[in-house]
Amino acid sequence: VGKYYFENITEIPAEVHVSSEFVYNTPILSEKPLFIFISQSGETADSRAVLVKVKEMGYPTITLTNVKGSTLYRETDNQLLLHAGPEIAVASTKAYTAQIAVLALVAVKASNKDINLIKELSIAANVMEALCDSKDLYKDLAKKYLNETRNCFYIGRHLDYYLCMEAALKLKEISYIQTEGFAAGELKHGTIALIEDGTPVIAVITQEIVNLNTRSNIKEVSARGANVITISRKGISSKNDQIVIGDLNEFLTPLAAAVPVQLLAYYAALDRGCDIDKPRNLAKSVTVE
Fold first, then answer.
1. DSSP E strand boundaries for 227-280
2. What are the structural domains, with CATH classification, of the chain?
């Protein structure tokens, strides 16, 4: 999402790298790159290893973190606090949405575009609050589609694909349902072979430019027996869509769409008797490589 913001708002090329891979498989870098480290805790060992390396190379660094005084906060050249407040659960929720909001603010400030982002974020906040009032809907959908399933798929295109990857992570880490997020247009390149009768598929549609394309993919998985939950934006919704997000600026839809996918994961885990705050085998901060 951050890459999309920087490239489409500031028109500055951006790349996303996995910290654990960067240190040992460093790509060719541009002449004057800026490194932005995103870490809720500010203590992620892999990210710090990258920080040490790029500082030796003389490149400027910024940390987006929720913890003032953390290792990454102290050691980078510049810091941006998320101000999301303490996050107790291992699975990140409000820190994730705060990261998106801060990345949008940085991108707009770094551009010459006249965007009233404070107004747009206020609209997004109202939409998110309205979505939070539909808890019974998410609870019912989770019980109906996710209560006994072994696996699940999220599909989407454009910005929705990035949201799908985050949504899949949330569902798998707290409910232990094997979940993957896929680009909907890639289904026929292999993934659709995994769709069978009763497989839950959650489709996210918030971008008008890919609305009809993703709906075509929904028809494909439905024809193969999938049980589909559709999350869409009001302006492009269909009467059969179970979850409809209020209208807001399209580039901020990852903020709003995060609410229903997080609550679907929450209720799926709750129904299965999982420890939602402390999932098995996971820690809040990954402090070893």
1. 227-233, 243-245
2. 2-115 (3.40.50.10490), 133-271 (3.40.50.10490)
